[in-house]
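Incident log, structure service

09:12 report received: a user says their structure output differs between two submissions of the same chain.
09:20 pulled the input from the user's history:
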Amino acid sequence: MASFPDNARPAALHVRDLCASYGARTALRRVGFTVAPGEIFGILGPSGAGKTTILAALTGTMPATGTVHYGEENLSDTKPRDRRFGNVYQEFRLFDWATVFDNVAFPCRARRWPSAQIGRRVDWALSRVHLADLADRPVRDLSGGQSQRVALARAIAFAPRALFLDEPFSDLDPPLRARLRADLVEFVAETRLPTILVTHDRGEAFAVCDRIGLLFQGILRQTGRPRELVRAPCDREAAEFLGYANAMRGELTAVDGSRVRIAISDREWHGRLSDTATELPCTGAQAVALFRPSALAPAAESPDTTNLSRLKVHAVRETEHCYLIIAAHGNDGTWTAHWPLSSPPPAPGQTITCRVDPSDLLVFPEEDGRNGLVSRGTT
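09:34 re-ran on a clean worker, output below:
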C-alpha cells in the first residue's frame, strides 16, 4: 500500500459554540464537538437540519461565530484556503473539460508546488481510489462513480489537515458504495486524519463512523457511538430517526427506576426509559412507547409472557437480510416487523404472535407540559 506523502502529525479538530444564520433564520445553534486524529465523526440528521452548513462554517466559506481549532491553532479567522481542509461533495464539482490528472492536481498547483511533487501526490491519490489507469482520461467521459472517486482523490492529494465529506456516496451503486466506504475507513486509519462525514443515511453512518452527532434544526442534540445512540436516544425525535418506527400511546401505570409499565388499549406493556433520561415521569403520565422493527420477534403464545401481541399480516416483502412484514395491531394502526429469513414467512391475511422484549420497548413521556416529572433518585 502506498504511504501517505505528508509527514506532519495530524491533530484533533475542536469546534466550539458554532453559530450561523441565513438572514433572519438561525441555521446553527452553538454546535460543538471534537474529532480526534484517525476518527470518523458522522453528522446525521434529516434534510434541512444544517449538516452542510456546519461544513461551510468549518471551511470558512460561510460567516459564522464560535471557534475552530486544529490542535492548538485557532483557525476561526483564517481564510478558507489556508485552513487546508479537504472537501468531497455529493455533486463532484469537477472541471469536466480537464483530465482526471489535472482535476486532482488542481489544489496542489494552486499552492505552487513543484511539478515533480505534484506528480507524486496525484499518482498516490489516484492509486488510493483505484483510478491510476485513468489519469489521462477527460472527466466528461467518466461514470458517476468514477467521478466521485476523482473528487475524493482531489481532496486528499494536497495533504489536508482534515477531511470533510458531504453525502459523498449517495449517488453510487451499492457495490461501489460499499467498496468506497471500506476504502475510506482504511484511509482514515492509515493517515490519522480527523474526518467528518455528513449524511442523512443512518446505515451509512453506522457502517463508517466511530462516533455520530444527531443534528436537528441546527442543534447538535446528542453524540455517541452508534450502538450507544440506538440504546439511549435522547428524545422521541432522535429515537424515530434512529429506527424506532413502531409507536403506541398510553398511560404510565408504574415507574421503578428506568423500568416502567404502560397501559395501552386495556393491556399493560413493560418497557424502559432511555439511559439519557435525567428525570422520571410520574405514574398516570401520558407516554409514547417505541420499538424498532427488528425488536418485534416471533413468539409462542403464553399467558405468562409479557409484551405479546397478535398481528394480522397485510403484506410481506423479502429483502436482503429479512422479510419485511407490514401488520395491523388492533386499533393502534400498522406496525413493521423484520422476520428472520431462516423462518418461513407468514402469508398476507394470516394472524401471527409476536413479542417485544421489555429492554427493546423505549418509553418517552408526552412532551405536552402536563406530565409530572421527578429527578432520578427521588420519590
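09:41 both user submissions now match this output. Likely a transient worker issue. Closing.
09:42 reviewer note: The chain is about 25% helix and 35% strand. The longest helix spans residues 174-191.
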